[in-house]
Amino acid sequence: MSQAKKWEPLKRVGIIGVPFEKGQTKYGVNIAPAAMRSAGLIEHLKTIEGLDIKDYGDIDTTAADADVEVDNMAHLSQVSACNKNLSERVSQVLKDGRIAVTIGGDHSIGVGTVDGHYNVNHDMILIWVDAHADINTNKTSGSGSVHGMPVALLVKELSDYWPYLPTMDWQVPKFSIKNLGYVGLRSVDNYERLAIEKYNIPTFAMEDIEEHGIRKSIHHILQVLDPEMNKPIHVSFDIDSLDSLEAPSTGTPVRGGLTLREAINLMEIIHSTGRLRAIDLVEINPALGDESDRKRTIEAGLCVLKAALGFSRRGTAPRGILDLPVQTHN
């Protein structure tokens, strides 16, 4: 009988900033990496005992090519150029033996993060945590915004549903939809629902999470995607998966989402597998809402990342110390 590989959580992290907003229409999501760093991203992660952190800086998001015309698909050349650079950087971080922590930016950057991860770990599984399924093609999208299309661009099963996409020759869809699971959906377009049902994607929308709880939901998805518990995990976490009361500063908020406590528990469970190798945090928009909204949203993002990387809400006893300090009295 073969035994599953013993995985231990990686204690080495590489941070990548992606100041990119052309996958959607609202100004401000491109300043999220700077806002997260200013809010003490590195300092917060340093509170996790033994975590080795390297900041790889921001991706160059400029496009050398003029924008190309593709029906109902805005800013394709810029989306493509950003994601090509991002894919290479994610692969570099993983080859350096670190968890790739990518701070967006809008969710179109999921094309680059997943592509870069797949190029290193062909057996990876993808957990897409989002209010939206992001599996539209340019033919089914109501907006033409690419942040609603990254899953459809990535999976090989949908490659025949796209026209030729100029500037995207670098990205050949190889990732299988059989290795995808959804958490937190509550705003799903008709053709997206059709794709979910056609390919039997393990999906826990909010009504399912209400019935089963977050723990059973993620355990079911992991069991379906990886019954032998030996595949690297990629989490692409859209902050709008949280209820808009928890994270108001985001471009497409939907009420009735995950509580922050549910999101933290979700990430704690994934961390405990030892198999997390990449996490994206996207769609924080510090330009939306007032100062209280911005602070609440950024703090929620920090809590999600800390939980994913090993922060314990129980607290951590000092290493190598077995007793409280004794005070002497004269």
Question: Which characteristics define this entry?
Answer:
330 residues; alpha/beta; Arginase, Chain A; eight-stranded parallel sheet; 10 helices; 8 strands; globular; arginase activity
Would you mind describing this structure in some detail?
The protein contains 10 helices and 8 strands. With about 325 residues, the protein is α/β, with parallel strands linked by helices. The protein has a single domain, classed as 3-Layer(aba) Sandwich (Arginase, Chain A), CATH 3.40.800. An 8-stranded parallel β-sheet has the order 2-1-3-8-7-4-5-6, sandwiched between helices. α7 (about 205-210) packs across α8 (about 215-225). It is globular.
User: Main beta sheet, described?
Assistant: 8 strands, parallel
> What is the strand content?
5-15%
Total discrete domains? 1
Task: Kindly report the average pLDDT value.
Answer: 96
What is the CATH third-level topology name?
A: Arginase, Chain A
CATH-level-4 superfamily name: Ureohydrolase domain
Q: In a nutshell, what does this entry contain?
A:
With 330 residues, this protein is α/β, with parallel strands linked by helices. The chain contains ten helices and eight strands. Keywords: Arginine metabolism, Hydrolase, Manganese, Metal-binding, Urea cycle.
